[in-house]
């Protein structure tokens, strides 16, 4: 494959312009209000800037719940939803415009413009919140918010409620009930709209390009972080400005450390490298893993383990369809893994008994998947009333079985020690079954080796 041409300015602009429309944010707010009791109010805090060191901040990332309801990606904002309020139901408190600040740090939207740009009914400077919000809460019987998520905000909410309590107005009543907002909001977030799926597909496409690039440029002697740099470059060039989570690039035995992010070792001839890295596109995550040989060819023991994980993943993906339960893919994958461990001489006994006893667990310590969306480990319940949740159209889950044989695991035959393999794809539940969003990156040994053989620049 020839190296991708640099996109023009207008192409980049077009990529950056793909966003959720105002109508969809309005629809989300309407759906949430429909779930709330009459006479209630919801308060959602946006994220604040976090310091990395001294006066240097981390790149700002909006809180996912806040983004889902507002699409407003500036720090220091509070969103309030007041169903049935005559003067407007959607209210945003945000930073005011400030010439001096904007000269240094860039544009602030400000309350005047936020109403039109974000479809708010009302907007106020954040500095006025103590004067205005208690009045909005007053007389409402139920207050929905994410209790216990942010101590400072909990204290603020309590202070606003106390202001009503201590007011001299004889008719003033604070809400009698505090309700966790997440149980309603997260149920909405679990089901992805067509526009969300489009963004998730763009995240998947950017991620796929990154992984194809590194399969083509890896060679023995490179450092793990050099692969990370290649990935990040390709993500950003395709509109995924940031990785959705710290990239894991683990050569050899490092692949057996599930959350290895040091990425500072040399990639050695004869080793595999596990790369778990996904781009974030307009706040939507891709979560993706491939494991491939540093020198382009799987050694025989590596291939044996790889084929087991690949078969486990295929069995799991096969179980993703409306009507099947969330645990079915995991069980299908672990049955294949159990049989595979027997074939490698690592487990001994009856496959079904070993599966029931979870004898695979020392070698595969994590679940086969999780919901995916605005957060990499996305929101949404996995069980309802104590039963595994049933797949429905619009849900997105990862499918990521793995096998890990750390070098010091002496019960494993020597030829398998130091091998860690995970294969992870992102799968959308469709009406007819499923669609793999990340299908563009080769998965079979044959296809990976063929891609790697073609190499960079060919
Ligand atoms: N990248 C984190 C995970 O696969 O869950
Ligand atoms: Mn994952
Ligand atoms: Mn992952």
Instruction: Report the CATH architecture of the largest domain.
Output: Alpha-Beta Complex
Count of individual domains: 2
Please identify the oligomeric state: single chain
The H-level CATH homologous superfamily of the largest domain, spelled out, is Creatinase/methionine aminopeptidase superfamily
CATH topology of the largest domain: Creatine Amidinohydrolase
| Sequence of strands across the biggest β-sheet | 6-5-4-1-7-8
Task: Work out the helicity level.
Answer: 25-40%
How many strands?
21
If you had to describe this structure to a student in words, what would you say it looks like?
- There is one protein chain.
- This protein is an alpha+beta fold and 458 residues long.
- The protein folds into two domains: 180 residues, Creatine Amidinohydrolase, Chain A, domain 1 (3-Layer(aba) Sandwich), CATH 3.40.350.10; 267 residues, Alpha-Beta Complex (Creatine Amidinohydrolase).
- It contains 14 helices and 21 strands.
- The protein has a six-stranded mixed sheet with strand order 6-5-4-1-7-8, sandwiched between helices.
- A hairpin with a 4-residue loop joins strand 20 and strand 21.
- It is elongated, with a radius of gyration of 25 Å.
- The model has no long low-confidence stretch (mean pLDDT 95).
- The chain binds glycine (GLY) and manganese (II) ion (2 copies).
- One manganese (II) ion binds next to loops.
Give the helix/strand layout:
Elements: H1 9-16, H2 22-35, E1 40-45, E2 51-53, E3 56-57, H3 64-70, E4 78-81, E5 90-94, H4 99-105, H5 110-118, E6 122-125, H6 129-137, E7 142-145, H7 151-165, E8 177-180, H8 182-190, H9 194-217, H10 224-237, E9 242-243, E10 248-251, E11 272-276, E12 279-281, E13 284-285, E14 289-293, H11 300-318, H12 328-343, H13 351-356, E15 383-384, E16 387-388, E17 396-399, E18 402-405, E19 419-422, E20 425-429, E21 434-436, H14 445-454
Parallel strand pairs: 1-7, 5-6, 7-8
Antiparallel strand pairs: 1-4, 2-3, 4-5, 9-12, 10-11, 11-14, 12-13, 15-16, 17-20, 18-19, 20-21
Bound molecules: glycine and manganese (II) ion (2 copies).
Glycine is lined by residues 245, 276, 287, 376, 400, 424.
């Amino acid at each position: 494959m020839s190296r991708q041409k640099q996109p023009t300015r207008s192409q980049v602009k077009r990529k950056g312009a793909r966003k959720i429309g105002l109508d969809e944010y309005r629809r989300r707010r309407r759906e949430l209000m429909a779930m709330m009791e009459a006479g209630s109010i919801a308060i959602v805090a946006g994220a604040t800037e976090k310091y990395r060191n001294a006066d240097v901040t981390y790149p700002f990332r909006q809180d996912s719940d806040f983004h889902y309801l507002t699409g407003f990606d500036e720090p220091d904002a509070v969103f309030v939803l007041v169903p049935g309020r005559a003067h407007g139901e959607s209210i945003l408190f945000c930073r005011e415009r400030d010439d001096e600040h904007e000269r240094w740090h860039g544009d602030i939207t400000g309350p005047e413009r936020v109403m039109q740009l974000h479809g708010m009914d009302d907007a106020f400077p954040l500095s006025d919140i103590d004067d205005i919000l208690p009045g909005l809460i007053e007389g409402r019987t139920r207050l929905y918010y994410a209790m216990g998520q942010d101590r400072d905000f909990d204290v603020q909410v309590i202070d606003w409620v106390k202001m009503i309590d201590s007011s001299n107005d004889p008719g003033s009543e604070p809400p009698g009930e505090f309700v966790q907002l997440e149980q309603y909001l997260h149920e909405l977030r679990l089901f992805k709209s067509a526009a969300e799926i489009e963004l998730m597909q763009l995240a998947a496409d950017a991620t796929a390009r990154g992984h194809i690039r590194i399969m083509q440029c890896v060679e023995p002697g490179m450092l793990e972080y050099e692969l990370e740099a290649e990935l990040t470059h390709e993500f950003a060039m395709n509109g995924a400005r940031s990785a959705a989570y710290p990239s894991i690039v683990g050569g050899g035995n490092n692949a057996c450390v599930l959350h290895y992010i040091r990425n500072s070792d040399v990639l050695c001839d004869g080793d595999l490298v596990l790369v778990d890295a996904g781009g974030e596109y307009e706040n939507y995550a891709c979560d993706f893993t491939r494991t491939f040989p540093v020198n382009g060819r799987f050694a025989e023991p590596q291939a044996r383990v790889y084929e087991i994980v690949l078969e486990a993943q295929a069995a799991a993906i096969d179980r993703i369809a409306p009507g099947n339960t969330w645990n079915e893919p995991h069980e299908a994958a672990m049955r294949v893994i159990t049989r595979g461990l027997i074939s490698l001489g690592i487990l001994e006994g009856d496959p079904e008994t070993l599966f029931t006893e979870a004898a695979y667990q020392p070698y595969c310590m994590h679940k086969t998947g999780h919901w995916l969306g605005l957060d990499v480990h996305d929101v949404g319940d996995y069980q309802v009333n104590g039963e595994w949740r049933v797949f429905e159209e619009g849900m997105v889950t990862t499918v990521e079985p793995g096998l890990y044989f750390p070098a010091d695991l002496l019960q494993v035959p020597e030829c398998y020690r130091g091998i860690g393999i995970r294969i992870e794809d992102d799968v959308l539940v469709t009406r007819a079954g499923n669609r793999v969003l990340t299908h563009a990156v080769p998965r079979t040994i044959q296809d990976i080796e063929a891609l790697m053989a073609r190499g960079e620049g060919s």
